Amino acid sequence: MLAALLLLLAPVGLAGPALARTQAQVGGRGPLVLAAASLQEALTAAADSWARKGHSRPVLSFAASSALARQIEAKAPADLFVSADEEWMDFLAARKLLVPGSRADFLTNRLVIVAPAASRAGFAMRPGFPLASALGGGRLAVADPDSVPAGRYAREALTNLKVWQTVQMSLARAENVRAALALVARGAAPLGIVYATDARAEPAVRVAGWIPAEAHRPITYPLARLTTSSHPDAEAFRRFLLSGEGKAVFRRFGFGTR
């Protein structure tokens, strides 16, 4: 019956969070969490830990923070949101879409330059480092710097390192940081800028350089409950993620915690 219902709903445009919400309601699943693409492995592991305690397993939907924030603005019926930057959470707060008092800075990360695993590329990070010449006519894979947090951090860092102007016309703009990672992993781009946790999750790439943390504003992942939240376990799962036990899961995947 559930499968038949979902087949009926899918053709009329009930996709993404709306479809996930329908699955949660019909199948008795846990709260719906919209989260930055870089959190896939870690948040999945945290949801598994929560489910092992006897709770309904949360439904997870991953995409660029920018895309998710726009869905929430359009009243996507989700319970929790984890953004990869403060800006998109501020965007929702300004529209009064966050439950008062539920927002908390949660995780931290670093930016790295990645290359295919067989590459010998390596960089000493200093102003004017030869990033453009290292591309060899190829493109630099980055999440869209006009909207996606990883791309915004990358643009800020490269600007401060005085190399942005040398590469801005050679970008392979990706819809999210995992899409940028995939371009490098399959050899479609010789270099990319992603989070350190992304590089750790993909054996087909290697870190060619660590971007100095002082070259960009701190990478912070805020978590909040949404005003559209209706699942009775939403607040409890939020508190679990912020607990020592929950944060320990994310540290296993290379995230810093607050």
From TrEMBL:
Keywords: Metal-binding, Molybdenum, Signal. It holds the Pfam family SBP_bac_11. The keyword Signal applies. It comes from the Bacteria. InterPro entries: ModA, ModA/WtpA. Residues 1-20 form the signal peptide. GO terms for molecular function: metal ion binding; molybdate ion binding; tungstate binding. One of its GO terms (biological process) is molybdate ion transport. Molybdate binds at S38, S65, A150, V177, Y195. GO terms for cellular component: outer membrane-bounded periplasmic space. PANTHER family: MOLYBDATE-BINDING PERIPLASMIC PROTEIN (PTHR30632), MOLYBDATE-BINDING PROTEIN MODA (PTHR30632:SF17). The complex is composed of two ATP-binding proteins (ModC), two transmembrane proteins (ModB) and a solute-binding protein (ModA). Belongs to the bacterial solute-binding protein ModA family. This is Molybdenum ABC transporter substrate-binding protein.
